[in-house]
């Protein structure tokens, strides 16, 4: 049974994972804390992205020889496979760790089995400490591993009467500057930002992450820009520039597009397409979360935020559970998930 030192260490490991990097594509976020026999923190480690040290290896390197006889508290079951780095289970065994406590079991069949390897080496293993918090840390990654497709968050901005554009087609800016900055923070957590050719042609967006001065972040810090649809884009379209990677998916088939992204190890898609593309995702049951920014203005006419979502009667409505309501600038951000969907 985990003691108070181990519980505190797990909370520290969870925070270390959150603080280290908002996006570790295509890997999960993981934190690790090493404790001495009296509960003193020896070292804290975290994973910072593919090719970098895993959290356990990071903590072990910081602890050095002090890791011998320690307890490792890890947010995710230590991996048991050779990828870009070696198996964490073997590293823990080699370091002389005597006990391992972890939160979430690894859902990836290629990496699972770490707990069994540790037990076989005579290490005491405890599972499930703060398991719900550990699972929430990697909610989208876990979903993608289990389903084989990315987790899809649909973001939209609308007036209080549900319009995403005015009667003349104008839509900039329905929401506030604060909401647009908030969207930047959400984009940074995703592996890909997806729009349809309709939005790409109408708005000529960049779909890039930008700093506080409005300049694009470095290329290697940008999510993949994905354009779905068969129409060509102008050569000088902003989505064709070199500020971020761009993928053209020349299909209208939403499930096949997500299958392609899943094959590319994209774990979390931020859907910013127009009302028809969002409707197509919803009609296929492929919206896993909605983040809506509602502005305190009325338009009366113009495009609805969502169309053609496969709903003919109220009984067929896509019913959601609201998980968060936050005031952002002059707007309200509403987050909701399908209430019958398991992550």
Examine the coordinates and then state which fold CATH places here, giving the name of the CATH topology of the largest domain: Dihydrofolate Reductase, subunit A
Q: What is the residue-mean pLDDT, rounded to a whole number? A: 93
Q: Please give the share of residues in helix.
A: 25-40%
Taken as a percent bin, the fraction of beta residues is: 15-25%
Under the CATH scheme, which architecture of the largest domain would be assigned?
A: 3-Layer(aba) Sandwich
Q: How does this model look, in words?
A:
NADP(+) binds at residues 157, 173, 199, 274-280. In the C-terminal section; belongs to the HTP reductase family. The chain contains ten helices and 13 strands. With 343 residues, the protein is α/β, with parallel strands linked by helices. The protein has two domains: 4-138, Cytidine Deaminase, domain 2 (3-Layer(aba) Sandwich); 148-338, Dihydrofolate Reductase, subunit A. The strands form two sheets. The protein has an eight-stranded mixed beta sheet with strand order 9-8-7-10-6-11-13-12. Helix 3 runs parallel beside helix 4. It starts with a helix and ends in a 5-residue tail after the last strand.
């Amino acid at each position: 049974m985990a003691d108070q030192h181990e519980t505190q260490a797990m909370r520290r490991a969870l925070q270390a994972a959150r603080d280290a990097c908002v996006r570790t594509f295509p890997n999960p976020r993981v934190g690790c804390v090493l404790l001495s026999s009296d509960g003193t923190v020896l070292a804290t480690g975290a994973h910072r992205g593919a090719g970098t040290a895993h959290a356990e290896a990071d903590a072990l390197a910081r602890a050095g020889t002090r890791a011998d006889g320690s307890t490792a508290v890890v947010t995710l079951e230590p991996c048991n496979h050779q990828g870009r780095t070696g198996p964490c289970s073997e590293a823990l065994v080699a370091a002389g760790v005597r006990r391992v406590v972890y939160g979430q079991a690894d859902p990836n069949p290629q990496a699972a089995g770490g707990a069994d390897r540790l037990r076989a080496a005579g290490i005491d293993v405890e599972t499930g400490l703060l398991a719900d918090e550990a699972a929430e840390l990697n909610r989208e990654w876990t979903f993608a591993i289990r389903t084989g497709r990315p987790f899809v968050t649909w973001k939209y901005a609308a007036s209080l009467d549900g319009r995403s554009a005015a009667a003349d087609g104008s839509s900039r800016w329905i929401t506030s500057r604060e909401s647009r900055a908030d969207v930047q923070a959400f984009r940074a957590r995703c592996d890909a930002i997806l729009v349809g050719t309709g939005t790409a042609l109408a708005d000529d967006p960049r779909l890039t992450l930008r700093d506080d001065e409005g300049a694009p972040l470095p290329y290697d810090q940008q999510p993949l820009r994905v354009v779905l649809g068969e129409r060509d884009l102008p050569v000088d379209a902003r989505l064709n520039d070199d500020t971020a990677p761009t993928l053209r998916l020349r299909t209208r088939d939403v499930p096949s597009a997500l299958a392609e992204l899943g094959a590319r190890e994209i774990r979390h898609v931020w859907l910013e397409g127009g009302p028809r593309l969002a409707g197509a995702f919803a009609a296929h049951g492929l919206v896993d979360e909605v983040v809506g920014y509602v502005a305190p203005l009325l338009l009366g006419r113009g495009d609805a935020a969502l169309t053609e979502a496969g709903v003919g009667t109220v009984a067929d409505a896509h019913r959601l559970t609201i998980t968060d309501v936050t005031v952002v600038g002059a707007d309200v951000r509403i987050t909701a998930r399908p209430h019958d969907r398991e992550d």
